[in-house]
Amino acid sequence: MLYLPEMPTLDTTESGGEIKMLRSLPGGRATQPAEIVLAFLPHNTVTPFATWQRNVRDGSTYWGHYFRTADEAMADYEKRGR
User: Fold this and answer.
1) Whose C-alpha in 21, 52, 55, 80 is 20 to 30 A from the C-alpha of 8?
2) For the whole prediction, is pTM greater than 0.85?
3) Residue ranges per domain, the chain?
4) Block means of pLDDT (10 residues each) for the chain, length 82 residues?
């Protein structure tokens, strides 16, 4: 089983559900600073794990990849963080 330490919950007022941010890595470009985020979406029963690129200036997330298992999400997170 994959252990993921607890991190802050993202503000998800607009999406209507709680999202737990599990980890983040630096990413993006100098013109658009970003990070890669690994998250757990407890309200999503089909694909509860996700990786996104997240704008560090305004907190918006985009380019989401969604997964059924934590192991699949972690592999994608590590690949996107390279």
Assistant:
1) 80
2) no
3) 9-80
4) 45 53 64 80 90 84 91 90 76
